[in-house]
Automatic annotation (TrEMBL):
Residues 630-639 have a biased composition (Low complexity). Residues 380-563 form the 5'-Nucleotidase C-terminal domain. Pfam families: 5_nucleotid_C (PF02872). This is 5'-nucleotidase. It comes from the Bacteria. InterPro entries: 5'-Nucleotdase_C, 5'-Nucleotdase_C_sf, 5'-Nucleotdase_CS, 5_nucleotidase/apyrase, Metallo-depent_PP-like.
Amino acid sequence: MSRFVRASAALVLTGALTVPLAPAAGAAGVPLEPVSGDTGFTLTILHSNDPESQLLAASGQDDFGGAARFAALMDRLRDAEESGAPYEGESENRGVVTVNSGDMYLPGPEFAASREDGAPFYDAVAARYAGYDAISMGNHEFDFGPDVYAEFIGQLPGVPVVAANVDVSGEPALAELEEAGRIAPSTVVETGGQRVGIVGALYPPLATITSPRDVVVEDLIAPVQAEVDRLDADGVDKVVLISHLQNITYEERVARELTGIDAIVAGGGHEVMAGAGDALVPGDEVTVHPGTGEPLSYPLTAVNPDGETVPIVTAGSNYKYVGRLVLNFDADGNVTSVSERSGTVRVSGTGDDAVAPHAEVEAQVTKPVSDYVAELAETVVAESEVDLNGVQNPGVRTQETNLGNLVADGLLDTGVRNASRYGVPEPQIGIQNGGGIRNASVIPAGPLSVLDTYSVAPFANQVAVVPDLPRSQVKELLEQGVAAAPAANGGFMQVAGVNFAYDPERTAQVAAEDGTVTTPGERVRNAILHDGTVIVRDGEVVDGDPITVVTNDFSARGGDLYPFRGADFTVVGSTYQAALELLVSDTLDGRITEAAYPEGGSGRIVVGEEATVPEPGTGPGPSPSPSPTGGPTDGPTDGPTDDPSDPGTQGPKPGDDGKGGSLPRTGTALLGLVAAAVVAVGAGGTAMYLSRRRRAAADGAPDA
């Protein structure tokens, strides 16, 4: 299993692989050049990743994406690869494997259609027609807990789920599937008379971003290498790793530590790669490598410890692309070249590359899901004067945006409204992780529907108040929110009730999985509450009263490594989607003004040394108390007006009823569920919508 393009010297690697929250150093890839040797076999890997229940169409692009067009394009490409004449430099002996690198579904309005009584798992129906040979586990598969994931796998007969570093023995439903061979470290596919091994790998700190319950995920190098070596000993000389590691820099580091792998198909980061001339979905751009600043080529490459070059590929997300990696092997199973025609193929319903929707998927998935979603779209809850930016990168995972402010304001609004009812102090700060804002698009000015709020906030995460945190811990929370900057990260923080400034050139905070800060951060330079109270000045915490924070329960539990460290919290009767809906429909009286939510944000988070001084009445929380000089009571009087791949963080919590799971039960969540229903009814809307929403809440629908 030698690889093509041997480097002049092997890369020296030291230490154990750790989760990279900063870009990997070094070049973005090694140039690919064919080596000498006749081509004895050509393998095409058709690949995708992160479909995330975007079953109908790409967000804001009705002519692109969608499960029905995706399945049809898969069929077209597979047929062409299996039966077409060989291209120059390729072999007449050829084979095809089709893989997906995880995040097969994502809680939200389209996923909620599957939670209706008697409905199939529409994402599983779509996956069956895509014809995958193997699927990797992703983090979102655990958003409703292991039982719902087991249900999904059960509706995928014949498609193995591979993960070499995952132990499911502690979860009976998944353990039963493993015993039946449906879950395994790897699988071997026979194609074109050759055996191709497909090994899976999953993000090791899985519990920090989802709800695996008693599923154990190990550091991946040792178990993956052991599985690759086992396949090699069994005579399998072509091996593909399909991994869901949340960002491309992590995939590069894995490639640099493993041997015996011919290619890596990555998932979790949503990066867009493209070859020269590859057409992209309108609005998409090729992702910039966070280490080099250069656009990601297709493929990206890394050099392994044996000095061999390994291609790494990924294909965006949301059914928008099919990746096509074409590898040429010699008779001994060595990769001799990557064909120049390798690249991404967009899923298009228009233009020269249009593909007609797959008829069965159209009937069995598109029609019932679109009917369900259309009902949610009928209820308008607000009119916006301004475009609302929920784009991920650059956007809610890298910087303040007006939609991020709106979601954080919803948390603070509901926290303040419901504090006395739940016996907690009124929160002063609202924190929303950017990874929980999921629409990944700009919502244009105009009507905002219930469906829009679900698209923005699809998870069943509950609004949680964390009382009386020391100011030093609040600074640690702010530090964690910008620890990965400038790289896109789901833990990037959108805030309400506070303005702060940070310097990305200073030391980033490092936190352990239990929230212990192992390296103190020095990035947060200045922070001012919206009542004018300064809590950080010149990078130092200002002594004073503790601060009450409101966030979502995923973050309160330590998701995204936010250092709450087991602090007590109280769920206050609402999901974050319901909080957003209530804010825009009631508190803002159905009007989202440009003055309150300008494009680019209102200066809550700035890069620099001095935070922007809060305007009186900013946001839904407590208003500033002006000092005699007209400025904040104890803070500065002026400040600046002014940061690929992510760990994909959003926070579902485990379910336990085998259908849709239950909402979280931590703290006072059980009482909170009852109150949440009351809040939902009070928010108004059509009878149809309320009925559906109550059913969705009962099933544990949108979460993750």
